[in-house]
Amino acid sequence: MFPNHDLRFCSYEAWRGVSSYTNQYTKSGFTFESWDNGVRFAFIPISDSLVYWYGTRNTSENLKESQIFKEQLINSFKGFIQPVPTLIEGTKEKDISRKLIYDFKPLQNWSKGRVVLIGDAAHATTPNLGLGACMAVEDAEVLAKCLEQGKDLFVAVKAFEESRKDRAKLIVNSSWMYGKIAQLDNGLLVW
């Protein structure tokens, strides 16, 4: 709908995985995110014996996303506290995804004619705040309420856009900035 609006590369990539793992953290539900120069790692138990994890690393945009480079992943996090290295090494390569991270600057309009965008189609955000899916649900609820008011379709769509744009812009820009801070690779600033 808006062909001149490009994706914005965030200068880092994310590896994500789910692995069988049990320790005192999984049993207590303890989660953590650990940062270092241009890398970070998160540990999130999803049961007593399964962990969802992700790691990020600064990179350039010209990498091929289909390549996982598990050895590179292991090397990127070998200096991290346990259980990070053990968790990565214990995750099967087929259970690891690797993606370059993009978002796009907030759009000025989310509709054209009778078509309106919601969720990531309207305001794709980086995963730093964990609000992408929540924002889509919020959009759906607000759009439904605007349509329920029985106004003209175009009026309802514009009311929806106006009521959601400021919050979406805040989330997209805050998540972008959080990512920039979290991915710092200046030793003094990271310290």
Automatic annotation (TrEMBL):
* SUPFAM superfamilies reported in the protein's UniProt record: FAD/NAD(P)-binding domain (SSF51905)
Which terms in the Gene Ontology molecular function aspect does this entry carry?
monooxygenase activity
Cofactor(s) it depends on? FAD
Q: Which UniProt keywords apply?
A: FAD, Flavoprotein, Monooxygenase, Oxidoreductase
Q: Where is the FAD-binding domain?
A: 39-147
**What does the record list as coiled-coil region(s)?**
none
Could you tell me which Pfam families the record lists for this protein?
FAD_binding_3
Q: What is this protein called?
A: FAD-dependent monooxygenase
- Give the organism the record lists: Cytobacillus spartinae
Top-level taxonomy: Bacteria, Bacillati, Bacillota, Bacilli, Bacillales
